[in-house]
Amino acid sequence: MKEEEIKYVNYQIITLVISIVTTIIAIVITYNQKRGLQKRPKILSNKNTLKLTTFNRVVILLSGVFFLYINYQLYNIAKKRGDNLKSYELQIAASILVVISEVIALYVISLSSTETLADVENPNI
After folding, report:
1. In whole angstroms, how large is the CA radius of gyration of the chain?
2. Which of 57, 55, 33, 37 is nearest to 45 (CA)?
3. Shortest CA distance to 58 belongs to which of 121, 1, 102, 17?
4. Phi and psi for 103 in degrees, rounded to 5?
5. 88-120 burial, b for 16+ CB within 10 Å, e for fewer?
6. How far, CA to CA in Å, does 35 sit from each of 40, 57, 105, 118?
7. pLDDT tens per residue, range 6-27
8. Closest by Cα among 101, 96, 89 to 67
9. What angle do CA 64, 70, 75 make, to 5 degrees?
10. Predicted structure pTM score
11. What is the 3-state secondary structure (H, E, C) of the chain?
């Protein structure tokens, strides 16, 4: 069982690295928005910003779903061992909330045009 648990912890590490990349993308998008507010040339067009924001949110959603899967698998391992399951249940609940929030964020982006993106979308995680 330890090997299986190590496998899921390795998956968590990979997903966390992906989360770091999405955070860097969010910083670039936010910096681009700041340049626009300062009336300075943007590094990304509005159309590309919308595409990059959508891509980033999809990756964050998939990461959330994957974390939910990992947490569920770790819950099952702990259940077989007879461990206290409270922390695993809370992690699953937190993962569900992340997935719900990202679905809402993607819906908001789908309603946005390139002109209103800065008004409705905060690209930060």
Report:
1. 18
2. 33
3. 102
4. -65, -45
5. beebbeebeebbeebeebbeebeebeeeebbee
6. 5, 22, 23, 12
7. 999 999 999 999 999 999 999 9
8. 96
9. 125
10. 0.84
11. CHHHHHHHHHHHHHHHHHHHHHHHHHHHHHHHHHHHHCCCCCCCCHHHHHHHHHHHHHHHHHHHHHHHHHHHHHHHHHHHHCCCCHHHHHHHHHHHHHHHHHHHHHHHHHHCCCCCHHHHCCCCC
User: And the tokens for 20?
Assistant: 């770091």
pLDDT in tens, 48-85: 998 999 999 999 999 999 999 999 999 999 999 999 99
Residue type, 14: I
User: In this structure, how many other beta carbons lie within 10 angstroms of the beta carbon of residue 28?
Assistant: 16
Nearest alpha-carbon partner for 74 in 1, 8, 3:
8
Q: What does the chain come to in residues?
A: 125
